[in-house]
Task: structure prediction
Amino acid sequence: MSSTDLSVEVNGMRFPNPFVLGSGPPGTNAKVIAKSFDLGWGGCVIKTISLDASKVVNTVPRYGKLKSRESGEVIGFENIELISDRPFSVWLEELTELKKRYPNQRVIASIMEECRREAWHEIVERTQATGVDAFELNLSCPHGLPERRMGMAMGENPEIVEEVVGWVKEVSKIPVWAKMTPNIGNPVLPAAAALRAGADGIAAINTILSIIGVDLDTLRPMPTVEAHTVPGGYSGQAVRPIALRHVMEIARSHPGVALSGIGGIETGYDAVQFLLMGCQTVQICTGAMLRGYKMIDEVKRELAEFMGRHGFSRIEDFVGKSLDAFSTHADLVERQRQVKAGNQGKTNRDAETWNGEIEKETAALVAGR
Ligand SMILES: Cc1cc2nc3c(=O)[nH]c(=O)nc-3n(C[C@H](O)[C@H](O)[C@H](O)COP(=O)(O)O)c2cc1C
Result:
């Protein structure tokens, strides 16, 4: 038996592994979630639900892709999809069944409501009665819902975040994660507001507002719906560096906080980077849409390989291990000055050589190397 343990505990919940399907098409109904659990996913954040699904009307098309010029691989993905349009009562039945069948895998209910205390109380009380393990509050969907003052319209305003999380915590008996928007300057402010109000954890990031491109035949931006469009949410590999920066800021400002990292994770090695930034779990949405649920075998293998290579036997051994590398630019300059000074006399790396190296780096870049 392998000595590598991929399980992880967060807010008193044990995940068989840190790989959780992110809210979106991969968690669109109980049937597909059951399939993902059979294949070995550690948990699933269901597609966001609300009390009145009749208000949710999607368009066709609702997706757009950015492809690599050379390989054609999808590197960025835009969607203008709304939250679940399936009736709340159907979801309640499905969640009850799902939890009975899969007691060991974590089902996290992503919920969203209008900015009214009674509405949030009702959705929390009725959903937690199904036996789900935790809530994720969607305070971050950037398109469509903000027109109804929901999603990102809440998450970009720390005062509203604090109020809504407070309402949820008044009635929730299970852990509550607040899912953050990246469409703001300082990710720490709304995360801090959520934690002040009692959130048990933070999930980051939701999608980034974007325009995937303009069709050069029709001159219409995409995805084009009856010759019109709206900016949509960007996800996939291209957003990973931005997501890593957001979780890093939140982890450094709130050491030890329960953090679920999301954004552009497609391999076990992508996931490891989020764990090193302080996340205990990771969520995969676009990656699962592009690669299929079966990718779970490979990402688990890659995580185990990384752990074996570094001698880590448990996830907790390396969560947040890269965070102490972040510093200020002035500190980087000072550290490099000390190294240069230490090298004086020992090697030829005097100030002139260092400046030469900076020039070489720039020259290589413009030459496409
Ligand atoms: C088609 C699509 C639908 C999504 N729907 C939701 C949703 O209903 N609720 C939510 O919180 N996030 C939703 N998301 C955002 C994802 O959960 C995730 O935060 C984001 O896409 C970044 O992760 P990724 O690069 O792994 O997709 C959706 C993403 C996509 C691509």
